[in-house]
Amino acid sequence: MWTVDEHLADILGEMAPLPPIELQLLDAQGCTLAEDVVAATDLPPFDNSSMDGYAVRTADTTGATEQYPSVLTVVGDIAAGAGELPKVGPGQAARIMTGAPMPPGAEAVAPVEWTDGGTGSGRAADSMSAPVGNEEVRVLRPVGEGAHIRRRGSDIATGDAVLSAGTVLGPTQLGLLAAIGRGTVRVRPRPRVVVLSTGSELVQPGEPVGPGQISDSNSFTLTAAARDAGAIAYRVGGVPDDPATLRAVLEDQLGRADLIVTSGGVSVGAYDVVKEALQPGDGAESYGSVDFRRLRMQPGKPQGFGRIGSGAGVPLLALPGNPVSSYISFELFVRPVIRTMLGSTDIHRPVVRAVCPVELRSPAGRRQFLRGWYQDGEVRPVGGEGSHLVGALARANCLIAVPEETTSLSGGSAVDVVLLTD
Ligand code: AMP
Ligand code: MG
């Protein structure tokens, strides 16, 4: 029998981040950066106006008041994106919009509210209604050097290290890459995870359920959990308990998988198809090198881990079929594999200590994972111990981990809690 920690260490010892690839920015969302990004441009790329207003020479506005405004000749109109710029000489101004480049000669921007907006009224304007061709603007107060100018390079200068390898790319990091003109970026790709459920009793949800049949839920839980962990997940539902069929399906899936996760068929019953199809020896046909083992854990005792396919092979984790067991096994063993392949440094779910006000019992020699509800430093079990209880599982936000050597805990004891939400 293996402990939970030994099994996990055995698996992780075989895993490494996937080799980096160059991706389009939006395809890289959630991925880990595999390069140090240095800006090849200044941001802003040119001096520009932070307000709608008038680009002026500061000396022309010295001493301006509402009563004695500076009257300037408007020599042009500069919209955002303007290429050709008017020159602003003494006594002149240019109408300018937010984000438009500063024209030569101008040293500051008078926001439209500091002017009469070119209306000729001499009163503070709240908009720039004046069309081009309105030749004068009255500036109603002095405008200091550099006022309302966003300087070239004031955000990021050419050569600045802006993002370092290992950064997880979220919306703002992708925006920054776009802002500095990067169309693609080098990242660890999302692992492609094929999720495959086995069991001749399974029907796909929505299909009629015959006698003795149940809807396949594991492939949905596990596919969603794989996506949640950052993978590109492919769901292959309901492979019957026939070793030849299973091997054929696996063979088909190998080409698109960085990792294969199966559910069901790993315990000691008859028709334990994953074991029959993959376990070497005992006269069974050998396919790959998957080791089936029993863990000191409840639920989730039977587990398989190894590689299948040619060459180095594709890693495969065979999880037990009971829905709670397979999900807990995913959280404990598969999620860290996906996170490792992503190049993430934070591969495990967070574990916190919490007080459990009710008494807990746990089998000797097994690490028990109970479904729980954690809130404000306190945790309570949700539902019973049965590993078929999907109702309670869906109401839990954590797992209560009771150590191997502990068989009972009195109410008010502190326990380890694995948080299932980010
Ligand atoms: P197994 O590990 O294949 O013996 O399955 C153990 C239990 O889990 C049985 O009651 C199965 O019917 C159930 N089970 C197996 N696979 C699934 C699945 N994909 N969805 C829901 N229940 C399953
Ligand atoms: Mg089965």
Could you characterize the architecture of this molecule?
17% of the residues lie in helices and 29% in strands. With 422 residues, the protein is of the alpha+beta class. It has four domains: 4-17 and 190-342, Molybdenum Cofactor Biosythetic Enzyme, Chain A, CATH 3.40.980; 35-43 and 155-188, no CATH class; 48-150, Molybdopterin biosynthesis moea protein, domain 3 (Molybdopterin biosynthesis moeA protein, domain 3); 351-419, Beta-clip, CATH 2.40.340.10. The strands form eight sheets. The protein has a six-stranded mixed β-sheet, sandwiched between helices. Strands 19, 22, 24, 25, 26 and 28 form a six-stranded mixed β-sheet that branches. Helix 1 runs parallel beside helix 6 and helix 3 packs parallel to helix 6 (323-341). The longest helix has 19 residues, at 323-341. The chain is elongated and about 95 Å long. The chain starts with a helix and ends with a strand. The model has no long low-confidence stretch (mean pLDDT 94).
Labels describing this entry:
422 residues, 6-stranded mixed beta sheet, elongated, binds adenosine monophosphate, Molybdopterin biosynthesis moeA protein, domain 3, 4 domains, binds magnesium ion
Helices and strands in order:
Layout lengths: L3 H9 L8 E4 L7 E2 L3 E2 L9 E2 L3 E4 L13 E9 L13 E5 L11 E4 L24 E4 L9 E2 L10 E3 L7 H9 L4 E5 L3 E7 L3 E2 L10 E2 L2 H11 L3 E8 L3 H11 L5 E5 L9 H6 L12 E4 L2 E2 L3 E7 L5 E6 L3 H19 L9 E6 L3 E2 L5 E9 L2 E4 L8 H6 L2 E5 L5 E2 L3 E7 L3
Short description:
With 422 residues, this protein is of the alpha+beta class. The protein has 7 helices and 28 strands. Helix 1 runs parallel beside helix 6 and helix 3 (218-228) packs parallel to helix 6.
